[in-house]
Amino acid sequence: MKISIINGPNLNMLGVREPDIYGDLTLSNIEENCQKIAQEFTIDMDFLQSNHEGELIELIHQAYHDNVSAIIINGAALTHTSIALLDALKATNLPIFEVHISNIHAREDFRQHSYISAIAEAVICGLGDEGYYAAMHAIIKKYK
Ligand code: DQA
User: Fold this and answer.
1) 64 in Cβ contact with 2 (< 8 Å)
2) CA of 131, closest atom in ligand 1
3) What is the 3-state secondary structure (H, E, C) of 27-57?
4) Ligand 1 near 101 CB (within 6 A)
5) Contact in structure between 71 and 89 (CB atoms under 8 Å)
6) 71 touches ligand 1 (CB under 6 Å)
7) 100 an active-site residue?
8) Number of C-beta neighbours around residue 54 at 10 A
């Protein structure tokens, strides 16, 4: 079993970026924690990040070709703007678990609409980095 975890723009700046909102952990810290869960349950995992919309679309297509069981995606700001990202996710026909570190519904108006949510199997937001681990556990329980 394999899970693809895909992170959008500016998430490479976690740890430095607005720590009051996004916490102190870096994206590498979160990746290490996800890797531990993958090892514990003996599954494979890709943990990916890009600041470029087109590259994210390629990573989503690659997840399909890699036959992953599910995609965990934090689309970051592209969540709120990108129909192309939505279409790429839709094209895979895979279970999509949308994760946001912050509670996007308690923030600015422009963050309250997600193009991804309409096709997501689950949406987790506001749990901080725990959202990634919760999504992994849910996928493992449901699909392994
Ligand atoms: C985010 C929320 C988005 O609104 C924002 O643009 C991000 C991060 C989150 O994880 O809370 O970059 O997706």
Assistant:
1) no
2) 10
3) HHHHHHHHHHHHHHCCCEEEEEECCCHHHHH
4) yes
5) yes
6) no
7) yes
8) 10
pLDDT at 111: 98
Per-residue exposure over 127-144, b if at least 16 CB sit within 10 Å of its own CB, e if not: bbbebbbbbbebbbeeee
Please name the residue that has the structure tokens 């987790």.
124
pTM of the full predicted structure? Answer: 0.98
User: Directed axis angle between helix 27-40 and helix 130-143, to 10°?
Assistant: 30
Which residues make beta-bridge pairs with 100?
125
Instruction: Indicate if ligand 1 lies below 6 Å from the C-beta of 12.
Output: no
Give the model confidence (pLDDT) of 99-132 as tens digits: 999 999 999 999 999 999 999 999 999 999 999 9
Residue nearest to atom 7 of ligand 1 (CA): 76
Residue to probe by mutation, ligand 1, list 5, 100, 112, 132, most atoms within 8 Å of CB: 100
- Residue nearest (by alpha carbon) to ligand 1 atom 2: 76
R_g over Cα of the chain: 14
Which strands make up the sheet holding 70-74, listed edge to edge? 44-49, 2-7, 70-74, 96-100, 122-125
